[in-house]
Amino acid sequence: MALARRLLPLFLRRGGPLPRLTPARALSTAALPADAPAADEDDDAITIKGVRISGRPLYMDMQATTPVDPRVLDAMLPFYLSQYGNPHSRTHLYGWESDAAVETARAQVASLVGADPREIFFTSGATECNNIAVKGAMHFYRDRRRHVITTQTEHKCVLDSCRHLQQEGFDVTYLPVRPDGLVDLAQLRDAIRPDTGLVSVMAVNNEIGVVQPLEEIGRLCRETGVHFHTDAAQALGKIPIDVNQMGIGLMSLSAHKIYGPKGVGALYLRRRPRIRVEPQMSGGGQERGIRSGTVPTPLVVGFGAACEIASREMDYDERRVSALQRRLLDGIRARVDDVVINGSMEHRYSGNLNLSFAYVEGESLLMGLKEVAVSSGSACTSASLEPSYVLRALGVDEDMAHTSIRFGIGRFTTEAEVDRATELTVHQVLKLREMSPLYEMAKAGIDIKSIQWSQH
Amino acid sequence: MLRTGGTRLAAPALRRLLGERAQPGLAAAGARAYHERVVDHYNNPRNVGSFDKDDPNVGTGLVGAPACGDVMKLQIRVDEGTGKIVDACFKTFGCGSAIASSSVATEWVKGKQMEEVVTIKNTEIAKHLSLPPVKLHCSMLAEDAIKAAVKDYEAKKAKLGDGPAEKAAEA
């Protein structure tokens, strides 16, 4: 308990609205984990993977994950240190207080998406939700429903679940998307068959940030009597979601994309009309048998707190984030030509900026941007040497798909960070273009597509 | 406790300790790390640039494809009398390993005879840069680029062979 007493005031001590950002900074930079890269003694330089970085990189990969909001951590800590009961314990105070906290969190999550708390089921994250939603729903209705519709730009866990269903004999339609990344509603309507059991379309794409027309898809699904599942991991707390207005039947949510802890998510399952799923895991029947396993109280409480904060600050965050996105884009475009935005700019969550820098290869750009933690839209870094399947689905040329970088802006991103990222990106792109034979050809007026390249 | 631990991390003694603990892990987890030579060539590429490709003493090799994510252009300037490569330069669109491979290639061909450079093997480049298997194609591309440059130079000479050079010999 001595630990708790000394630890809690540290996190609880907070000033007015402005210093709110300071604890987050301090947390993200000072709290080095034990296996962090070795820091040189003389300065703040870090050497990792053979690359020397002068300090911790600034973080612009908010689609991958976000830092925990200090206010979320405040809410969580008591449930690690003093109120550590199992929420399923029915015989003592420890269990009761944990259970009450879990139910409060359930209500907080439900409230953010306009749902009833009884429609929220806690899981380990969006991947698990997607598995339960896609496979669980299809398995439950397998007698009458043999067909699933999804899009080519879905997250891997949805696509992989669909592939799994295919192996079991289900039919899956992978809808193409338009060049701006959005689903064509007419095409979706045509794809629906009498035995279609599920339409799964993600709310906000993780790579390109486009926002799908959920309301229209929901209406279409309601008209045709098909369940509508949406993976809203990237959308929760960032764009307004109302499960009733959008006609959503099943929805996957994740905590760590909205400044909550990693390792917890929630599945929304509609009660009226009721949608049922087959559980993917056997066990003690927790979460009404949908997801067995002890509910992790601190994580769930953190998730609830994150939702609560998001519901209060969504508008404020959106204004800040879109201003920063504009600043980043304008800053880069002012000094670099041939920059292409991947995905619709109009229907987009502004915290995502996926850019292709023509004539510069994405992986080499990332290598030079070691001081900015960003991600390449291309999967080159995962050793497959294949450009991103999402960009390919948009019809982006393969050479351009190799040149994309995803910048993620979030609640704790500062103007100074955006300016520094702009500076480093511009510098590196110009340097690599100086080195690029394609840029040289383009400047000399040679059409790169007219050349017979030796494919290897 | 946690709190003081956090501040103490900054102390040199603890940092050194952390460093020592982290090092072996780093080496083991470094499967996807870039070798320091790759980083060096990426940060300070040697011989970036272009020669006039219409110069009769210049051979140009352009290999790869944008769709594959790698294009290398390697050029050599050859001394007509001795057949020695006096200068070389490159431009590369590709990952760090591709840039490093072509940078190394220009260094290795400089000052060598043309017959000698066509024997440079991709495996030597890959070994020099400690390229992982997924990056071996970068070194193959560099080998191809050297060969293509030499071939281009020879083709140019053969074409011009009917022209001024032979005329000069006849005269």
How are the SSEs placed, and which strands pair?
The complex is a heterodimer of chains A (456) and B (171).
Chain A: H1 2-12, H2 21-30, E1 38-39, E2 46-48, E3 51-53, E4 58-59, H3 70-81, H4 93-112, E5 120-123, H5 126-140, E6 147-151, H6 156-167, E7 171-175, H7 185-191, E8 196-200, H8 214-224, E9 227-231, E10 250-254, E11 265-269, H9 297-335, E12 339-341, E13 352-357, H10 362-368, E14 372-373, E15 375-376, H11 389-393, H12 398-401, E16 404-408, H13 415-434, H14 437-443
Parallel strand pairs in A: 4-14, 6-7, 6-8, 8-9, 9-10
Antiparallel strand pairs in A: 1-2, 2-3, 5-11, 10-11, 12-13, 13-16, 15-16
Chain B: H1 2-8, H2 12-29, H3 36-43, E1 58-65, E2 70-78, E3 85-93, H4 96-109, H5 114-117, H6 122-129, H7 136-170
Antiparallel strand pairs in B: 1-2, 2-3
Helix pairs in contact in B: 3-4, 4-7, 6-7
Quick structural summary:
Chain A has 456 residues and is of the alpha/beta class. Chain A contains 14 helices and 16 strands.
Report on the architecture of this protein:
Chain A: Residues 59-420 form the Aminotransferase class V domain. Chain A: Its cofactor is pyridoxal 5'-phosphate. Chain A: GO terms for molecular function: cysteine desulfurase activity; iron-sulfur cluster binding; metal ion binding; pyridoxal phosphate binding. The complex is a heterodimer of chains A (456) and B (171). Chain A is of the alpha/beta class. Chain A is 39% helix and 14% strand. Chain A contains 14 helices and 16 strands. Chain A has helices at 2-12, 21-30, 70-81, 93-112, 126-140, 156-167, 185-191, 214-224, 297-335, 362-368, 389-393, 398-401, 415-434, 437-443, and strands at residues 38-39, 46-48, 51-53, 58-59, 120-123, 147-151, 171-175, 196-200, 227-231, 250-254, 265-269, 339-341, 352-357, 372-373, 375-376, 404-408. Chain A is globular, with a radius of gyration of 23 Å. Chain B is an alpha+beta fold and 171 residues long. Chain B folds into 2 domains: 2-31, no CATH class; 41-162, Sufe protein. Chain: A (Alpha-Beta Complex), CATH 3.90.1010. Helices cover 55% and strands 15% of the residues of chain B. A 3-stranded antiparallel β-sheet of chain B has the order 1-2-3. Chain B is globular and about 50 Å long. Mean pLDDT of chain B is 78; it is low at 1-31 and 163-171. At the A-B interface, helix 1, strand 1, helix 10 and helix 14 of A face helix 1, helix 2, helix 3, strand 1 and strand 2 of B.
